[in-house]
Prior knowledge:
heterodimer, A: MutS, DNA mismatch repair protein, domain I, Dna Ligase, domain 1, 39% helix, B: seven-stranded antiparallel sheet
Amino acid sequence: MATKPARTGTPPPEAGAAHATPATAPSTEPIILHVDIDAFFASIEQRRDPRLRGRPVIVGTGVIASCSYEARRFGLKAGMTLPEAKRLCPQAVVLQGHAQIYRCFAEKVFTHCRDMAPAVETFLDETYCDLTGTERLHGDPLEAARRLKRAILESTGLTVTCGLGPNRMLAKLAGKAVKPDGLARVTAAGAGAFMRDLPVEQVAGVGHARAKTLRSMNVRTAGELRVLPVETLERLFGAPGLLLHERCRGRDTAVVSEREVPLSISRETSFHRDTADPREIEGMFEYLAGRACRTARELGIRPRTVAVRLRYADGESAERARSLPQPSDTDPVVLALVLDTLARLFTRRVALHQVGLALSNFVRAGAEQGALFEEREAGRRAALYRAFDGVRDSFGHGVIVSGRALHLKGRLAEDEHGFVLRTPSLTR
Amino acid sequence: MRQEPIDKPIAVRADFRGGAVTPIAFRLRGREHRVVRVNARWVDRVPRHPHFYFSVTAESGDVYQLQFQSADLVWWLDSVTLEG
């Protein structure tokens, strides 16, 4: 068994050295706090409607995006198909989800984290906070994390699990051992013992494929992974093998970085009914491209790369990413590439179940080299879309609907945020 | 659970004391519905002026979503969630 870090209030054995120092003295080792919102989407739905509390709740369409701990007792987990979930737990309440509401709650949680830590890296439902050197301000990190949990609970009604460690990986693993609503710390001195018996899949960087390779070699725990020489790991996995050699020893050098620029901006949705109607498909892509470009403009970034994703009704999928001649955040430029990619990608005579696009490889707006002869036209277009953004800020995104997206009118419900998508996605 | 969109402006009696807004009752189809519990509140700060949202339980036991738009000081009834 792994050396499980102690839950709230009980200092773990490994933490002895850290606790022996005065609470206000800065520690010599980095302190990373990982905050994970417990059963995020399902917990919010249970907050919004008290009749759901204590009941198994599933959020998702097609597959489980999130499920409550009551549902997990029946073996349900994220990624499971809904028919399978209903078979295991017929009494589960299935909800389609409200991405905009989840974003508001996540922002509130992240605001508490930013109040406490000088560097915060946020994801959909979790965040890493670098607390290194903040002991004089906040006192003992465990106590600071406890205060953070309390503040989040009071302002949002949500419980979070906090893990403290000398690096990101150990902070996350410390929390994972005490979910839900837990608090635990692993120190650098205790990292070796903590990691030794963990299943190899829990080592950061070991996914399904690498775990399968390692298990075929009878390597089942992080401790057994340590026995493999670094050369063997490099031959097996290439450069990531070098990282695994460090990580199975509890060493991780990844820093907490304020990602002002997201890795990607994704917008995707499934159709209410599988479709091969080009007007509906192109209309949906125009709408998704408009939403993604607006987010990019708000962040002041322009993508170089645009990826198009298709999922057919029979479960097959296709994806292709292409580069724009110049980074651009204006709808028609991105849409032209999206539609051209769609024409090359949508080759099967099968209806589509889901479509999506992702913008990535961003540059700061204004930082890229302009196209010499098209600059005036590009400037006019950028000004036009900034004006659209202003109108939409005041009256809602749905107040302006462009070209092909008009075909969605009457097919999709609308609110002040625009069309109500079946399975909206969030920016990562 | 069945959520039905309503999406219409309504009259709401609210308490603005202490720097926070809390709905107390709202008028729907000529009848006043007293709020017996505010289940959750959240703020959408993406629009230029924030929108304040409330999930409330009315005397009937039904759960409603109310929205207060700070730009024009208007209340909206977004939806009602019914059992079944």
